[in-house]
Amino acid sequence: QVQLVESGGGSVQAGGSLTLSCGVYGRISSSFSMAWFRQAPGKEREGVAEIDVEGRTIYTDSVKGRFTISQSSGKNFLYLQMSSLNAEDTGMYYCAARFGWTAGRLSISEYNYWGQGTQVTVSS
Known about the structure:
The protein is mainly beta.
């Protein structure tokens, strides 16, 4: 089994920065793909960034150049560095994982392990 625990959320003013962390516990694998998703109030959950088995990354267009996804060498921690935050970045941020590759489309259905989420609130 795999357990994911997010931390690092909080309240920040527009233009500020936050770094989210996700601890991976249990059956850690070098063959993980991992991602960050977020869900704003009243909206569907959307993919933010993904890092695949070989460490290649993809981002949704709205965060390119502002967010960076990374992971520790042992793949037991996943990070999301967020800068130039704006009100549209507000939401619950979730860490997700799966064994093996994904199609590279930041698709919710491809991930079968999820954390409980950490709240990010950006005030303008």
